[in-house]
Amino acid sequence: MRRVVVTGMAGMTSLGDSFAQISPKLNASQTGIRYMPEWEYLVDMSTRLGGPADHFVHEKAYPRQARRSMGRLAVMMVKTGEHALADAGLTDDPVVKSGRMGVAAGSSYGSTPATLDFVEFLEKGKARGLNATSYIRMMSHTAPVNMGVYFGLQGRVYTTSSACTSGAQGIGYAFEAIRSGAQDLMMAGGSDEFCPTMTMVFDRLYATSTRNDDPQHAVRPFDESRDGLVIGEAAGVLILEELEHALARGAKPVAEIVGFSTNCDGQHISQPNRKTQETVMLQAMSQAGMSADDLSFVSGHGTGTATGDVEESHATHAVFGDKVPFHTLKGNFGHTLGACGAIETWLGIEQLKEGLISPIANLSNVDPKCAQLDYVKGETRKVSKNAFSSSNFAFGGINTSLVVANYE
């Protein structure tokens, strides 16, 4: 069976765009959450909290001609992909355009400004905001196809627009494409641009935090005082490559994808199910040929919602027990939706190679309804450098689990 390694990776978050920038903040339990005064006019929304990547000005990332088919989320993915290719030593490498490299990536939705232009057309009959690229910026596969065009990819395009599992499915399906021999290299990941519509989705479900006067402590995964999630903004891209191909060109793998599974609850559109979550984690571990004793830590989904954290904790306990260090990064970034699986894998690999994992931000007292796990709280934990499991779950009952091993 062909082995699949990671040879490049990059990300963009509210706390910075490199591990050197982000790591000290994670270890200090800092968050990228802020009060959103620009939302004061949204009177029917309870929360005023968000985690946008304010530092990134997408209008300045590329010349106007180059980004005319890109909304903000596509620009974020292309820019992050550019950094990941450079990290892999593949910038301007002919293999990128050879047909042996494809892309698997997604987002929850396309860019909202383009959608508003279509709404104006429907409501007023005026098409003044529409042009030849409006749909390209709005469509759900805007991120992977813009990556394909910008980098000249001629391999497979998998669009993984499955909300909170978009990034994890992107990595998983890229892994399967290489493992099967269909491709030698893949760009994989996910993104979502910041928009109040995504926050309103959860606000209507009474699932957003309303600690509007305390943004830094608003997201409290698994804590008994948690009151909901906060939406963040991010992008993450990994370069996956067949091992022998990577070694032949002199690349240095940083990690190996050894297990992936995805399944569906098949019961409820928004209520998580601990049994199918347990199943997806077991399947990924079985494919990896590993047991809980082989893991250095588990990177959880951990949105900070009342029901989600409880269900996930019990599924995690059923698979890994209470001896494997467990943390989540959503207390720091908020829920970055289509990006979360990608940035959590990227930063998980970085922390695995350091042998240090950051504490769960704002976790003080574990909710007694949650299962007993080895929650990492208070301070950074030293761990082994062997492997980790990463879980993500999405509306529609979609579950994913990745197992990533160190490569040295």
UniProtKB/TrEMBL annotation:
<comment type="similarity">
    <text>Belongs to the thiolase-like superfamily. Beta-ketoacyl-ACP synthases family.</text>
</comment>
<keyword id="KW-0808">Transferase</keyword>
<dbReference type="Pfam" id="PF00109">
    <property type="entry name" value="ketoacyl-synt"/>
</dbReference>
<dbReference type="InterPro" id="IPR018201">
    <property type="entry name" value="Ketoacyl_synth_AS"/>
</dbReference>
<dbReference type="GO" id="GO:0004315">
    <property type="term" value="F:3-oxoacyl-[acyl-carrier-protein] synthase activity"/>
</dbReference>
<dbReference type="InterPro" id="IPR016039">
    <property type="entry name" value="Thiolase-like"/>
</dbReference>
<dbReference type="InterPro" id="IPR014031">
    <property type="entry name" value="Ketoacyl_synth_C"/>
</dbReference>
<dbReference type="InterPro" id="IPR020841">
    <property type="entry name" value="PKS_Beta-ketoAc_synthase_dom"/>
</dbReference>
<feature type="domain" description="Ketosynthase family 3 (KS3)">
    <location>
        <begin position="1"/>
        <end position="406"/>
    </location>
</feature>
<dbReference type="GO" id="GO:0005829">
    <property type="term" value="C:cytosol"/>
</dbReference>
<protein>
    <submittedName>
        <fullName>Beta-ketoacyl synthase</fullName>
    </submittedName>
</protein>
<dbReference type="GO" id="GO:0006633">
    <property type="term" value="P:fatty acid biosynthetic process"/>
</dbReference>
<dbReference type="InterPro" id="IPR014030">
    <property type="entry name" value="Ketoacyl_synth_N"/>
</dbReference>
<dbReference type="InterPro" id="IPR000794">
    <property type="entry name" value="Beta-ketoacyl_synthase"/>
</dbReference>
<dbReference type="Pfam" id="PF02801">
    <property type="entry name" value="Ketoacyl-synt_C"/>
</dbReference>
